Amino acid sequence: MSKTEDSKRDAALDLLKKSRGSLIAAAKIQANTICRARGRVTSVEVAKAMKAAGYVGAMAKVDLRWMGAVFRGGSEWTRVGWEMTGSHSRPVTIWRRT
Questions:
Q1: In total, how many domains does the chain have?
Q2: The domain containing residue 78 runs over which residues?
Q3: Residue 22 burial (CB < 10 Å; 0-12/13-18/19+)?
Q4: Among residues of the chain, what percentage have pLDDT more than 90?
Q5: Residue 87 class from Cβ within 10 Å (0-12 exposed, 13-18 middle, 19+ buried)?
Q6: Which of 23, 21, 18 is nearest to 47 (CA)?
Q7: Which of 26, 72, 73, 74 is at a distance of 20 to 30 A from 9, taking alpha carbons?
Q8: From residue 41, how far is each of 15, 19, 60 by CA, in Å?
Q9: Mapping DSSP to helix (H, G, I), strand (E, B) and coil, where does residue 77 land?
Q10: pLDDT tens-digit profile of 44-83?
């Protein structure tokens, strides 16, 4: 990814953090819960847990790329691999707590 693409992504995630802060905060709680239980977590698992927790309506209004804001920033998450569980079996990152 180029620096321009990185900047655009970062700006979009910053905007999402402001406009969907409560949704992202709830997703972070789910991510932490899953990671404590399994030792790792993916955005697919967080999205599934969010839907089970009743966030279906709130999530339907937003493209799921907002999930990047859950794992972004600071040093609390470390990318440890990939698995093919995204839409159409696309790769998603496996995260662990730092």
A1: 1
A2: 3-97
A3: exposed
A4: 52
A5: exposed
A6: 23
A7: 26
A8: 24, 24, 22
A9: strand
A10: 999 999 999 999 998 887 878 788 889 987 789 999 999 9
